[in-house]
């Protein structure tokens, strides 16, 4: 059987990550998916944009291009050129569909969805509740439609996995009529990652996912925790928007909502100014000027007080959610770390569970220091609760969901 190619686009506020995969054919690694090319365009809109492209099957090496990429439209054009140079262009007949990561799907979208005008309008309507993400996702979709109007375009939503949250976790304790009228509730994000990592973690533990309870910590630039019972999400730390919960690279996570009125009344900041403060000038960058955990780690090593305090605040919040989700689940089989920080920052993992032996939680120092791309346990042998590192792969998950949907048409 010949494979179908799926191009996956993950458009962030200032970046475009992409992967081209072949699915449904014979052979190939990773189940039956083979990765053909991967890359990213970062710092879109700045003078110092950079494109990194890596063909994975042609034997050609990794290519980097520096120079301004004005917007997401130009970014996708540049990616299309790189793919074409490898004989993997968007005009290839093997290309079966384009899968898009869409961050906010609201109440309506809880499954992978074929994109038409009505779907696009609904994704646009959700821009106010995902202001950093949905606009970039929409540009990605429009450009892809322009380049290949004949191809199915599929949206895979970050919110979908969290649709199973019970009302007790999904509702805020505010006036019900106001909440319902404006659809103010907790949606949760990074769901594609939480779902993928939950399945992989159960596999690593040798357990049936339907009988496995997990706390999944997706710690990237954006960060969120999920409580997963038997493969279904029962609580997650992000809410109406991807601002609630953990301390992130540039986002505050939880604050007293009165901070917003206070800054309005005493500092004259309007809604947009506070929005910008909490989303872009808070979190690690607001606390110490850096949002990259590698840099923070280096500064801590030099005795930098601000970096130390930023790290401590980050860890304190993470531990609070760990404790909360332990109580939500009652029985926990594993705590699972994923995404850029979770997969790479051993000091974060160590500090997150330090002193929690009473809860059955510990990391083995040597196992925690191991680096790698495979799912692995880092808890001591025989530990009551496993602690694991499971690399996420949102692109593979989106490709598989996209392939399943278009193959069934
Ligand atoms: N080797 C590393 N050590 C510590 N932290 C790392 C390392 N590599 C990446 N990170 C962290 O991961 C973050 C990016 O995570 P990622 O999951 O790629 O985020 P996003 O998908 O939101 O762009 C970086 O900002 C940095 O803090
Ligand atoms: C929803 C979200 O926060 O996504 P990211 O981590 O990619 O910014
Ligand atoms: Mg991410």
3D architecture notes:
With 409 residues, the chain is an alpha/beta fold. It has two domains: 4-157, 2-Layer Sandwich (Nucleotidyltransferase, domain 5); 207-389, Nucleotidyltransferase, domain 5, CATH 3.30.420. The protein has helices at residues 72-85, 117-125, 134-147, 167-170, 176-181, 191-205, 258-267, 271-280, 283-288, 293-301, 305-329, 339-344, 346-353, 365-369, 394-407; strands at residues 4-11, 16-23, 34-42, 50-55, 63-66, 95-102, 113-114, 153-157, 213-219, 223-229, 232-236, 334-338, 376-377, 386-389. It has an eight-stranded mixed beta sheet with strand order 5-4-3-2-1-6-8-7, with helices on both faces. Helix 1 (72-85) crosses helix 3 (134-147). The longest helix is centred in the last third of the chain and has 25 residues, at 305-329. The radius of gyration is 21 Å and the shape is globular. Acetylphosphate binds at residues 12, 103, 133, 158, 189-190, 220-222, 242.
Produce a short descriptive summary:
With 409 residues, the chain is an alpha/beta fold.
End-to-end gap: 18 Å
Kindly name the structural category: alpha/beta
Low-confidence stretches: none
What is the rounded Rg? 21 Å
State the CATH architecture of the largest domain. 2-Layer Sandwich
Number of strands: 14
**Largest beta sheet: strand ordering:** 5-4-3-2-1-6-8-7
How would you describe the oligomerization state of the chains in this entry?
single chain
Instruction: Report on the biggest sheet.
Output: 8 strands, mixed
Mean pLDDT: 95
**CATH class designation of the largest domain:** Alpha Beta
Number of DSSP helical runs: 15
CATH topology of the largest domain: Nucleotidyltransferase, domain 5
Q: Tell me the β content.
A: 15-25%
Order of helices and strands, N to C?
EEEEEHEEHHEHHHEEEHHHHHEHHHEEH
The bound ligands are: adenosine-5'-diphosphate, acetylphosphate, magnesium ion
Amount of helix = 25-40%
Shape assignment: globular
Q: Please indicate the count of domains.
A: 2
CATH superfamily of the largest domain: ATPase, nucleotide binding domain
């Amino acid at each position: 059987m010949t494979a179908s190619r799926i191009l996956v686009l993950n458009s962030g506020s200032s970046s475009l990550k992409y992967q081209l995969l072949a699915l449904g054919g014979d052979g190939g690694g990773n189940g039956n998916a083979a990765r053909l090319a991967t890359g990213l365009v970062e710092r879109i809109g700045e003078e110092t944009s950079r494109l990194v492209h890596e063909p994975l099957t042609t034997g050609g090496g990794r290519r980097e291009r520096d120079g301004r990429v004005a917007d997401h439209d130009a970014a996708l054009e540049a990616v299309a050129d790189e793919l074409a140079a490898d004989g993997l262009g968007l005009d290839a007949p093997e290309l079966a569909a384009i899968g898009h990561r869409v961050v906010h799907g609201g109440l309506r979208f809880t499954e992978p969805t074929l994109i038409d005008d009505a779907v696009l309008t609904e994704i646009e309507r959700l821009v106010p509740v995902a202001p950093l993400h949905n606009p970039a996702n929409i540009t990605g979709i429009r450009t892809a439609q322009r380049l290949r109007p004949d191809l199915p375009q599929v949206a895979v939503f970050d919110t979908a996995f969290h649709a199973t949250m019970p009302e007790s976790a999904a509702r805020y304790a505010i006036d019900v009529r106001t909440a319902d009228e404006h659809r103010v509730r907790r949606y949760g994000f990074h769901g594609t990652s939480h779902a993928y990592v939950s399945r992989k973690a159960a596999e690593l533990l040798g357990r049936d996912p339907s009988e496995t309870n997990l706390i999944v910590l997706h710690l990237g630039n954006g960060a969120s925790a999920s409580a997963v019972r038997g493969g279904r999400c029962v609580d997650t730390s992000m809410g109406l928007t991807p601002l609630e919960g953990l301390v992130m690279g540039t986002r505050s996570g939880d604050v007293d909502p009165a901070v917003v009125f206070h800054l309005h009344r005493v500092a004259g900041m309007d809604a947009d100014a506070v929005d910008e403060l909490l989303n872009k000038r808070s979190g690690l960058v607001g606390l110490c000027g850096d949002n990259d955990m590698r840099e923070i780690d280096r500064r801590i090593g030099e005795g930098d007080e601000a970096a130390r305090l930023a790290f401590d605040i980050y860890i304190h919040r993470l531990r609070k959610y760990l404790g909360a989700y332990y109580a939500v689940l009652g029985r926990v089989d594993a705590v699972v770390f994923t995404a850029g920080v979770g997969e790479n920052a051993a000091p974060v993992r160590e500090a997150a569970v330090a002193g929690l032996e009473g809860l059955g939680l510990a990391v083995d120092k040597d196992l925690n220091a191991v680096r790698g791309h495979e799912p692995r346990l880092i808890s001591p042998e025989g530990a009551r609760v496993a602690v694991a590192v499971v690399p996420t792969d949102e692109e593979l998950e989106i490709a598989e969901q996209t392939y399943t949907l278009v193959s069934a048409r």
